[in-house]
Design goal:
heterodimer, A: about 300 residues, alpha/beta, Rossmann fold, 7-stranded parallel β-sheet, 3-stranded antiparallel β-sheet, 8 helices, 14 strands, about 25% helix, globular, B: about 325 residues, 2 domains, 5-stranded parallel β-sheet
Chain lengths: ~300, ~325
């Protein structure tokens, strides 16, 4: 695909000669009095998982007929960025979302938690994009921000594919350090603990990179009253596809490389047998059931 | 017939059950070709042959194992370019999905994740997925490039087919930039002696109702030869390790039999177990939402019910 990979100087590097590319690096930003590190957090607006989630007639997820929220798992990504800033790193935190009008509330929540600014990519042509299309839009938007660190949640709570971070990193030519359950940033080194199936691993990478965190990484803060008031004044850039230089034909349902043929509500499970454990008979009835099903 | 690449999931050559399952799906679509990355092919060969691998691509460059997903994705994309397969099947765990995501971009190909069934169709494989915490099923196809599909464990019963398993060494070109994120430390988890959670035929899980005492849950699981899982509430309370958490932010399991004890059945938990074939619950609260899902439920205290049940299971097994 058409996104060139780009290289940014680590924010602590001492720069002897002028940067040869046209992009202002983090260090140059620092010299201009801007924060040394720029963190972009990718967030998603999703239908509330506790509501009755449905599909539209075109087999896309209904994001407007259901109450939506900032995807719960993205709160951990926002919190991790805030923790890095709280630890004393001079940085600017930008939250990025792609989605319809209502998706702005996902940005607002993140700003209330403490992020500095928002970017909302809003374009009707994006509707129906699959992960490939979404990752293109995100990558283009991140490229404009010249991020040193991109932070994502472990999955969305609606599509829950967990592949967009890897796709974004691939498009940007960035390494990825993902599913971190504990994160330390030491200068330009990012180290995470990952609790895998068979082992606990320590994974390390050097900025710029893409990081994703699990729900074990931290405890997301609630917006304070001060945070809620401050968020109203924070800037939110609304960008269209043409602002990003993405052709409308490269995203949306028609450009998707996958197609949902059919979505069908799973038939409700037929009511089971419920017994009450009186006089210790519950165990016998349970084992009888298991034996009847040939599990014993 | 076109090849169907299957990324082999193994530890030092001991293949996991998911690999046999993926090879079984691959046979429905074309000629199964196993992609074996890492050391240990001598231990894996027979199992791969037995489950129908007509060909085995061996990629034993040690650099592929130390550097996370990027080199593996580069290697797989190069193999896709060379072999021109009709589809690529990859296990649906965290690493598998990341490799799949990168390969999809590199190979300009559509990606479907977490398939629970795959059938051959006129325009390529037709996948079935279970979405929204298992409340909907979705069928989908890939419409561009080589279909890249990640498949959930326990989605099909592996079929033994004796196959040719001819070997072909493949040497990918790994870029320097692929090596910038690496594993610097690795401590294997202590073996529990129980089946692996996502592969187990029976899972017994405990939640808030255990009050932190998992012994009855573990003992009952052992009587059945089951894996042990835990709800988020139990994990968040520090009662059981996160690696065993079942639900939205933990593992998704789809065993033949799922037994939830002391678990109320919140939507986040359902997301991880709703596709189980048979569901049983033991809970003190007869209003617990988990009872809406069950084939069989016991309203009672797990601390009383489970020890008796374990003893009776052992008695029946003799």
């Amino acid at each position: 695909m058409g996104i060139p990979s780009y290289t940014l100087l680590p924010h602590e590097a001492t720069c002897q000669s002028p940067h040869d590319g046209s992009i202002a690096t983090a260090l140059e930003r620092s010299e201009e009095g801007h924060p040394a590190m720029k963190i972009v957090v990718c967030v998603k607006y999703v239908p509330d998982a506790t509501a009755d989630r449905t599909f539209n007639s075109d087999n896309t997820v209904d994001r407007t007929g259901v109450d939506g929220v900032l995807s719960e798992l993205d709160e951990y990504a926002v919190e991790e960025a805030l923790k890095i800033r709280d630890a004393g790193d001079d940085c600017e935190i930008v939250v990025l979302t792609v989605g319809p009008d209502v998706a702005r509330s996902a940005i607002l929540k993140s700003l209330q938690m403490g992020a500095d600014a928002g970017v909302h990519v809003l374009d009707d042509a994006i509707h129906g994009s699959d992960a490939v299309g979404t990752s293109l839009v995100l990558a283009k938007a991140i490229e404009r921000q010249q991020a040193d660190l991109v932070v994502c949640g472990m999955a969305s709570t609606d599509g829950s594919m967990s592949v967009v971070p890897a796709m974004v990193a691939e498009r940007l030519g960035l390494p990825q350090v993902t599913f971190g359950s504990q994160v330390t940033v030491d200068g330009t080194t990012v180290r995470v603990r990952r609790d895998g199936d068979a082992a606990t691993e320590t994974i390390e990478g050097t900025l710029p990179l893409l990081l994703s965190v699990t729900d074990q990484a931290n405890e997301p803060r609630y917006p304070s009253f001060k945070g809620i008031m401050a968020a109203k004044k924070k800037p939110v850039d609304v960008l269209s596809l043409s602002d990003l230089g993405v052709a409308a034909g490269d995203v949306g349902a028609d450009a998707a490389w996958t197609k949902v043929q059919q979505s069908q509500q799973r038939p409700a499970r037929s009511a089971g047998t419920i017994v009450t454990d009186e006089d210790g008979t519950g165990a016998a009835k349970l084992v009888e059931f298991l034996a009847g099903q040939k599990f014993v | 017939m076109s090849e169907i690449l299957v990324l082999v999931d193994h530890t030092d050559g001991v293949i996991r059950k998911t690999t046999a399952e993926l090879l079984t799906f691959a046979r429905r679509l074309g000629e199964p070709a196993a992609v074996f990355v890492g050391a240990g092919i001598d231990s894996a060969r027979d199992a791969l042959r037995q489950y129908g691998a007509e060909k085995i691509y061996v990629l034993d460059d040690p650099e592929l194992s130390d550097y996370l997903v990027v080199p593996k994705a580069e290697a797989l994309a190069q193999l896709v370019e060379q072999a021109q397969p009709a589809a690529v099947l990859i296990p649906s765990h965290a690493e598998g999905k990341e490799i799949a995501g990168r390969v999809a971009i590199k190979a300009s190909s559509g990606l479907i994740t977490d398939a629970v069934d795959i059938e051959a169709g006129d325009n390529g494989p037709i996948t079935t997925q279970s979405v929204f915490a298992g409340s909907y099923t979705v069928t989908a196809t890939v419409t561009h490039g080589t279909p890249i599909i990640t498949v959930k464990p326990n989605s099909v019963t592996p079929e033994a087919v004796d196959a040719a398993a001819t070997e072909d060494h493949f040497n990918p070109v790994i870029s320097e930039s692929a090596k910038t994120a690496k594993i610097v430390d690795r401590s294997p988890r202590e073996a529990t002696g129980r089946p692996e959670l996502t592969e187990a035929a029976i899972v017994v899980s405990g939640g808030r109702g255990t009050g932190g005492k998992f012994e009855p849950v573990e003992d009952f699981a052992d009587s059945l030869g089951a894996a042990v899982g835990a709800s988020r509430a139990a994990v968040d309370s520090g009662w059981y390790p996160h690696a065993f958490q079942i639900g939205q932010t933990g593992k998704t399991v789809s065993p033949q039999l799922y037994i939830a004890t002391g678990i109320s059945g919140a939507i986040q938990h359902r997301a991880g177990m709703q596709t189980s074939k048979t569901i049983v619950a033991v809970n003190k609260d007869d209003e617990a939402p988990i009872f809406e899902l069950v084939d069989f439920g016991v309203v009672g205290d797990l601390h009383a019910v489970l020890p008796r049940a374990a003893a009776q299971v052992r008695a029946r097994k003799g």
